[in-house]
Design a protein that fits this description.
This protein is an alpha+beta fold. The chain has 13 helices and three strands; from the N terminus they run H-H-H-H-H-H-H-H-H-H-H-H-E-E-E-H.
Length: about 230
């Protein structure tokens, strides 16, 4: 996915952040700006990204589903632009890896917080638009939201990592740490086995063909274990 983003941007996202002030701002949380006494954060770009996202999603739904009523289109758009969906899109693109937070936000798992991930998706879209225009936004949305809209699978989307992080935050515990336990090759495919740890204690293991999928499975197993403990 990262290579696909870089192809759209014509250079690596890390390079864009270093050389373009809009990309730099797009990943800067206000908590970091306050700590470093910076004049920028992602908030203004988020405002623009929200408007751009709504327009692109509305047009896509209108073109993709010619027989839908206004009410049905409105309902589908609401699912596409809700916080949980945008947070899942951020994670699927790996945007959390570029996010900079203040110490407090960082230490309490801000990089997995739904509201922050949702905001960053919108601010990133705005930076892409200002750099490359509407077509680049469509290409990015093709990697995430457009596919999900076409399949209408929003109700089945569960972000177990976010749910697990929110659980430990409510319990006032330290953030969950994901560690690679094992990496194997099966039928020419890499299989990653990752553990979800809380205070160095293994809560759950998961496997998948990507590290992100394995992390989701590990979080799912950890949530199941915590639910059993609570009974």
């Amino acid at each position: 996915m990262e290579n696909e983003i870089n192809n759209i941007l014509r250079m690596s996202l890390a390079t864009k952040i270093k050389t373009n002030e809009n990309y730099l701002a797009a990943f800067t949380h206000k908590s970091y700006s306050n700590e470093k006494n910076l004049s920028y954060s992602y908030e203004r770009l988020e405002f623009l990204g929200d408007a751009l996202l709504s327009a692109h999603i509305s047009e896509f739904i209108w073109r993709q589903f010619p027989n839908m009523t206004e009410g049905e289109m409105t309902s589908l758009r609401s699912k596409a632009v809700r916080e949980e969906t945008l947070a899942a899109a951020s994670l699927s693109l790996g945007l959390e890896n570029y996010l900079v937070l203040g110490h407090g936000e960082e230490s309490t798992g801000g990089k997995q917080r739904v509201s922050i991930l949702s905001d960053v998706f919108e601010s990133f879209l705005a930076a892409v638009y200002l750099d490359l225009g509407h077509q680049a936004i469509d290409r990015l949305l093709n990697l995430t939201l457009y596919e999900w809209i076409t399949n209408n699978n929003f109700d089945r989307m569960i972000d177990y990592k976010t749910k697990l992080q929110e659980y430990v935050q409510n319990e006032k515990r330290n953030p969950i740490i994901y560690k690679l336990i094992e990496q194997n090759k099966k039928n020419n495919n890499l299989i990653f086995i990752i553990g979800a740890y809380l205070d160095e204690i293994l809560l759950g293991k998961g496997q998948g063909t990507t590290k992100k999928k394995a992390e989701q499975e590990a979080a799912k197993a950890a949530l199941a274990k915590l639910a059993q403990v609570k009974k």
